[in-house]
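Re: beginner question about structure tokens

> Can someone show what the tokenized structure looks like for a real chain? I only ever see the sequence side.

Sure, here's an example I had lying around. Input first:
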Amino acid sequence: MRIQRFCRRAAARRWVWVLKKDYFFLLALSFAGLKGLNYVCSLAAGPLFSNSLLSAAALAVIFAMLRGCAAKLRRVEDRRELRRRALYGGTAAYVLSLSLVMGSQLRFHAMTDSGFRGKAWLLLQALALSAVVFPVTYALFDGLCRRREGRPVEESAGEQGRWSGRKIFFCSWGFIFLCFIPVFLAYYPSVMAYDFNIQSIQAQGTPDGFNSHHPLAHTWLLWVAFHIGRACGSMETGMACYSLFQMLVLSGALAYSCAMIYRLCRSRWALALALLFYGIFPYCSVLAVSVTKDVIFAALFLIFVLFLVERFYFRWGGGWLDVVILLEGSLMTVFRNNAVYAMVVFGLCWAALAPKKEKLRALLVGVCLVLGGSLLTAGIKLACGAWQEGSDAEKYSVPMQQFARVGHYHGEALDPESAALLERFVVRSAWQDYNPSIADTVKIQVTNLNFKEAWEGHMSDVWKAWAVFGKRYPNEFLDAFLCLTAGYWSLCDVTWAENLGVGLEERKGALFTFNASESYFFPEGIANESKLPGLERALEEIVSNNSFYRWPVLSNLFKPALYCWALALSALSFCFLRSRRGLLIALCPLCYLGTLLLGPVVNVRYVFPVIVVVPVLGALLFRREEL
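And the corresponding structure tokens:
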């Protein structure tokens, strides 16, 4: 008996020691997380937790989060599964923390810490901050596992289930379209901003005068709207017809998404949230009446992703669905020039992730998808007789910004030979006009002055010079890329909403709503005749004056980075769940996002296709039944 008591006491003391070790470990992690959080906050407004009471409260909250996370980890009995969850959660936490640290440095210092020591310090601060983020990211993967282990929901069988889906689709279509109507009246006849001034000049002539720098299909739609306006004796009527057509297309695609979300989740709450988001969220409603190619492209892109969900999760249509995907995807690519490059990468991913029996079929569909888009674009050129090619300068926005940043910060210190080499590719006048968040100021000067002489046909020389300056100024090259793309990955960034101005007079905040219809060739322009001026003022406060900055929590819904991170985390979650089909669907918008990282500026209209796709990916992740 004495021996048994001694063993029990020894075991109890051992477990007490283990618990103490866990306690001290979690406390050390809490201090590290507090240090990382304080560093990020100090970049904005000085040390936030210099007050002892505030520091103690923050430390207690972080410790409670880590302790709760540790309790969840102890409930996982399989060690291999435990390591896998910790690896995925830790990776996501560290990458998110790194983006927060880099984004804060760029916003408040206009550059990241330079040199080996600066980059090492940056990585260490991100590691410390990840102690705060890890409980959140781990909760995501833990929630996915618990969701999949839950009881499945019985599906509606037979004809009743199919008709239910159709009713949801048509009711959603009508609801979303009706939500767009007040915004249409507020901005009547449409929002004529962005590239409308250039395309409107082309649309007034004949199709053989179109320039392929902007998608010919979209310019042709504007040409039709102009002809309707002339036939009706009012250009405003023509543009109103275009807006109604665009609203009909977009609301139909969004309604299809709502029906798909309900089919996946079987949740009325999920359907209600999707309807409110698609119908009322200002990005959806204001862009629905904006004359820009990105709106129709977003609708077609969403439909393309939904067809992929039909193919991989519901498996209806057989080989005919592949033909539909091919035709719809080809039509989609004619509304965005960079969509072809995204489809090339996506086609390769499809072939790589497909089962062995379907690899050849997937490869053929991917090749036909790329060829179909290229042939359809060529057919539109032939039909219109429009052979004027746009400049390729936009493809090289990132290297132009990198050259310009080196000239901006180090131009005076360069030796004559290096200065001449740099000036060959980016003229000296563009060095002073360098704007970190938008490449247009540099790109326009290069296009007008020396792009044909120095860039076209001389790309080997360009990349040699790029390697020379990149090796000499690696921090400037990295920061040029980070500043240009910060809106896609940094939740701290605000340049995406202010790169050309902000305010009710400028009308160039988060969304552009200024009237760009007047030009030298079209001096009378097209007038905006708001039928609901009160609603227009309220919307302008949000999208032009950026009043959402003052909204706690909800302001994050307006940040493009939120949707880009949601997309990236969705792809990582599908990897965690070992779902090839889910990963493949997430890779489609991810490939498109990759092309945006090489673009000239972060703009909401560019990332709008990702915004409308993210709710579908969320429904795929948290669906109740195993399809």
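Each token stands for a local structural state, so reading them left to right follows the chain. Confidence is low (pLDDT under 50) at residues 6-20, 151-163.
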